[in-house]
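We now fix the convention by which a protein and its fold are recorded. These numbers are not coordinates but entries in a learned vocabulary of local backbone shapes. A record is reproduced here so that you can trace the correspondence yourselves:
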Amino acid sequence: MLFTSFPFLLFLPVVFLIYWAAYRSRKAQNLILLGASYFFFAWWDWRFCFLLLFSSSFGYFTAMYIGESEDERKRKILMILSAVVHLGILCYFKYFNFFVESFVTLATRSGWHLNYIPVNIILPLAISFFTFHILGYTFDIYNRKYEHAKNYTEFITHIAFFPQLIAGPIERAGHLLPQFEQPRVFDIKKAEDGLSQILWGFFKKIVIADTLALQVNYVFAHYAELNAITIAFGVILFTFQMYCDFSGYSDIALGSARLLGFELLQNFNYPFFSKSITEFWRKWHISLSSWINDYLFTPISFKRRDWGMWGIFYAAILSFAISGLWHGASWTFIIWGVLQGIAISYELITKKQRKKASKRFNPLVYGVLSTVLVFLFWSFTQLVFRSQNMAELSGILHRLVSADWVGPIDIQLIGLLWVAGLLVVERIQRKRAYGLSVMHLSYLYRWPIYALLIILIFSSKNLNNQSEFLYFKF
């Protein structure tokens, strides 16, 4: 069930009414959320409910034994066992064919002749998100950051909690689980704020992202026939399509959770005003970047601290390569991750020199140039991210180098206008939680704004012809 689908527009109000009707019993509310979340998951394919339940249950019991044990050897074995099981499940469903096909290709180039027919494996919905969620919890219990969950039902409910299940954010048990252990009180202002963020998410996804998708898909499908400047604009539009698509879904997730009395982790914080790639990653897919930092980059760099700056370089490259692989089973994702790691490494190594350089120039000019360079780098890596395979990436890069940069731009103006309008709104609202955070305004101002966005959404041609949610397959 997609957030922007008609079934979800029926599902959410029904859950909302039943859930708050049981406001006197926290246990009843949690059971309602458990049933609603598994129904939401089963809407896609009910068979994988058993996988979600197994992963949640295995994570609960192994963490419980880890938390209760004083035997360090036993604790470490259980932690490794949990990681192997969960990563093994993820690797089978998401990477089995990729790894085998890569091995067959390498063997063929070495002179071996191997025949392989790819196995038809259905990728379970949200497996990357709930696997990292459970693994993060297990690592935290092993490191004794907090006590293990005492209530099985609350634990499996917080894993399956439908607002954050299919698109994140990748929640931390230490943040979300306590909210299931405490009473929730309905707050009309929080409910309106939740609806406002949902509306903003719908607007970004349906009106902006899906409008850009039509032009982006055209450019990537016909790049061999287009001039270089049109391809470049197509790549830039994809950068904003991805942002509006994913952050729009995150807005709907956070708003839906707030309607039910929960606060999820912020996943985006106006990344396009960043002056460095390091800052960009603190504001883009925040739940993933913080997970990578806490459970991969920091431990790896600590173990390689005797390598000096090379240890940081190694940790950044490896961590972001894994991040790229998390996004999908393709070499383009791995290259995308490696490029991020190289950029982060460069910024860490040259931090002092860049700070000195910034003082030699006009701060405003330096800041603007830094923001532009960060955006151009990110857009280039988004080209790598968007390419279906290495052949397509090579073909587009060849056209960018060899095709004419002078000529008409085969891009519709409407997409650029939406992007410009979005940037203006985000610049104005950059100190607030999200673009449509207008609860500080009088209802005489904010309700007309709500009405305008609703009109734009329902008058959009994209409403009945939505593009696929880009992160749905991750």
